[in-house]
Amino acid sequence: MIVFNLLAGALLLLTGFLSVYLRNAVHAALALAANFVVMGTVYMVLQARFLGWVQIIVYAGAIMVLFVFVIMLLYAAQAEVGVDPLPWMRRAAAGVALAGFLALAYAFSAARSALGDKAATALLQGGTARVLGPVLWDEWRYPVMLVAALLFVATVAAVALLRPGRGTA
Amino acid sequence: MSTFYLLVSAALFALGAYGVLARRSAILVFMSVELMLNAANLALVVFARGLGSASAQAVALLLIALAAAEVAVGLALVVAIYRTRESTLVDDLSELKG
Lengths: 169, 98
What we know:
The complex is a heterodimer of chains A (169) and B (98).
Chain A: H1 2-21, H2 25-45, H3 49-75, H4 88-111, H5 118-122, H6 129-138, H7 141-161
Helix pairs in contact in A: 1-2, 2-3
Chain B: H1 2-22, H2 26-51, H3 54-85
Helix pairs in contact in B: 1-2, 2-3
């Protein structure tokens, strides 16, 4: 188990780093897809089996295919090449990222004492659909409806934005 | 184990933040945003395990659905901008700066 956790953590960090480091957009997208797949397996180990499969199917499947599709559609010929117009931006971004990491690590270390309760973990029973379903459709029914409406609106918006004959303005 | 994955989550979030700020293509900025969303989801799943709370997992599921909606609209915007500007570099979209 420890071997799996270390390997998964290292893979998550490696693929995450590659996805923000690689210049070729297709390579970055593939690194991100690998990151999502590993993340799905980590969910399954962390007592969230249903979420793990949703992660692999929706994120690594649907969302990343959408990304690769758009990259292939209009981006393949246009990579991040040439002189960076804001050369100081990378250093500033690295500073912001480091500060964010330290702040998050501090906040998480404060919350650590609440975790690691084996009795509480047993309540999840692996986080299968049998456990998650009743919670979703009882306690979380209104948020589920709201998100469903939002997905519908987003789909209509995406189609409306790209309908032909909309003009070039 | 929980602490380890929380640290991984924080590191992934920081990597995503770096990508959002340093990347020049709108599509790659979007991918970095997805990385940050995933890092938040990982933290949610770790907390769900530690607290034995299926509600935290429900929030994570709703977050995945929200991310799907965000990607649909975001990529539609990128394609629409590319149609008029022939570019997806965020540096080319600077008309609104003060």
